[in-house]
Specification:
Elements (H helix, E strand, L loop, with lengths): L1 E3 L30 E7 L5 H11 L5 E2 L5 E7 L3 H4 L7 E9 L8 H11 L5 H18 L14 H26 L8 H10 L7 E9 L7 H16 L2 E2 L6 E8 L2 E7 L20 H11 L6 E4 L6 H9 L4 E6 L2 H20 L8 E5 L14 E5 L9 H18 L6 E6 L2 H10 L4 E11 L2 E10 L8 H23 L1
Parallel strand pairs: 1-6, 6-7, 6-8, 10-11, 10-13, 11-12, 13-14
Antiparallel strand pairs: 2-4, 2-5, 3-4, 5-9, 8-9, 14-16, 15-16
């Protein structure tokens, strides 16, 4: 089976409640509305932002997991489509069962044997019903990548047959689960399995895989071992076929210390890849961009600037979700500006193909970020991903770049009301630069996030009411910059 994420991880501030099940409030018969628990992975550090969005758009309270980067919330199946419209979540899954304090055995053999026995005792029925419904939602959105589909575009008759075949498979899977669970405590699963095989002898075998995400240092087993033994028991219980790549169902086994959640995936690839078609070396996930945008709370008619836009991920997410603001995206790299333009054109074409208004409130410019062609005190919000000094730039250059950037940002930002949301992993350099700009910027809040395995900070800054050009910080920096430019000019003349 598949496994990911061995090792310890940080604990979030909110704890998971008592052991609960995803069992419905009503019987899961065909056509009935049932209530299940949906789990979502979100950018680490923005769990509260994701919970706020769930409350705002779906109207239910979300619960933050002990394992950072996950939230859980209840939903009825008639509103399932709404979870796919959330902007802050990466991946979605329906919870089969969750345990707040699962008592793992000391012995590895005993623990793995217990996981094998657990597979036949879980309430699979409702989760499989949701997976079935989710499959029909995905069919409307587009064809599945991989699996049993082909790249050749089928004709209408072929598509109808394929759709009918899929519906039949889904119905058989759920029916099989129901027949298993209706047995006495699922203690004797073998007769039920035989009955389900006799009922549909010619049915195509469902393909599946188990993915185990494990965090914690007190487990006697590895992710591979848990996925292998639990997956083997699932295979025996349902008579499915294991397939690591072209699977129909992905069963998730998420373990964080004593917390264990079993679920079924509802997304085939992360939802954060929604806006970008032309990727750069440091393209931000759209879900992280959304979290940064919500942090600064854009208002109607705000002018929002990204002076180091890269591929344009931040202004694109803003223009789509907070469309009443105006975005200016710029970079000093020609390739970055071209990628931003291409990504904007891609979104516009996609909108036009759907018959929607294709225009986006974004302007794209190539510039020197230390000397922006923008009028003083004309920007409401600055939001950008600053160079970490790893893939882009260097730690040494950041010591000169960061103070100059913050000074120029202070110049164009509105005194008293302007804000900046800046992402960087070079925390030491940024802290020093901010301390030198105390008269122009005041740090309000910091969100610690995981960006590609790097521990980075998202800093929310408030522009002070000081008039630019009249504080010791910007006067000193101005002289320093002019001296630097003079030195560069002398070097060029000497060369």
């Amino acid at each position: 089976m598949s496994c990911e994420g061995d090792g310890p991880s940080e604990q979030g501030s909110n704890s998971v409640g008592p052991c609960t099940s995803s069992s419905s409030e009503t019987d899961s018969k065909s056509g009935d509305v049932i209530t299940v628990t949906i789990g979502a992975t979100v950018p680490t550090g923005f769990e509260h932002t994701a919970a706020e969005e769930v409350k705002e758009k779906i109207g239910v309270e979300a619960r933050i997991s002990k394992d950072r980067g996950r939230i859980y919330f209840p939903i009825t199946t008639d509103k399932l489509f709404q979870v796919h419209l959330l902007r802050s979540v990466d991946n979605l899954f329906v919870v089969v069962e969750e345990y707040d304090h699962y008592q793992f055995k000391q012995s590895k053999e005993e623990t793995l044997m217990e996981l094998q026995q657990l597979a036949s005792k879980l309430p699979w029925t409702n989760a499989l019903e949701v997976w079935k419904l989710n499959g029909t939602l995905k069919k409307k959105k587009g064809h599945r990548k991989g699996g049993n589909t082909t790249k050749v575009k089928p004709n209408r008759n072929t598509a109808d047959v394929a759709a009918a075949d899929t519906e039949q498979q889904l119905h058989q899977v759920v029916s099989a689960a129901e027949s298993h669970l209706e047995a006495d405590g699922a203690a004797d699963a073998e007769p039920c399995e035989q009955g389900s095989q006799e009922a549909a002898p010619e049915a195509r075998v469902i393909k599946f895989r188990v993915t185990c995400n494990r965090a914690g240092d007190k487990h006697s087993f590895s992710s591979n071992e848990a996925a292998r033994d639990f997956g083997g028991a699932v295979q025996e219980f349902f008579q499915w076929k294991a397939d690591m790549t072209k699977f129909d169902i992905e069963v998730l086994l998420n373990i964080h210390n004593e917390e264990m959640v079993i679920g079924i995936a509802l997304t085939e690839e992360s939802l954060h890849r929604r806006n970008i078609s032309h990727f750069g070396p440091t393209t931000l996930r759209s879900t992280l961009c959304y979290g940064m945008l919500r942090l600064c709370k854009p208002q109607a008619s705000d002018v929002i600037l990204d002076p180091m836009c890269g591929t344009g991920a931040i202004p694109l997410e803003g223009a789509i979700e907070f469309s009443s603001s105006f975005y200016i995206a710029g970079d000093n790299n020609d390739m970055a500006v071209n990628r931003t333009v291409n990504n904007i054109c891609h979104i516009q074409k996609r909108r036009a193909d759907k018959g929607r208004i294709s225009g986006l409130p974004i302007d794209t410019v190539r510039w020197d970020l230390c000397s922006l062609p923008i009028r003083t005190s004309s920007v409401d919000i600055i939001i950008t991903d600053m160079p970490f000094g790893k893939r882009m730039g260097s730690k040494k250059k950041n010591w000169d770049l960061y103070p100059l950037c913050l000074r120029e940002m202070a110049r164009v930002c509105r005194p008293g009301s302007g804000k900046a949301v800046l992402l960087t992993q070079d925390k030491k350099c940024f802290a020093k630069a901010i301390s030198r700009m105390g008269g122009l910027w005041r740090k309000l809040h910091t969100v610690w996030v995981n960006v590609g395995g790097l521990h980075a900070g998202v800093y929310l800054l408030k522009r002070t009411g000081a008039v630019f050009g009249q504080t010791p910080e910007d006067v000193h920096e101005s002289r320093g910059m002019s001296n630097t430019q003079g030195d560069e000019k002398e070097d060029k003349e000497l060369s």
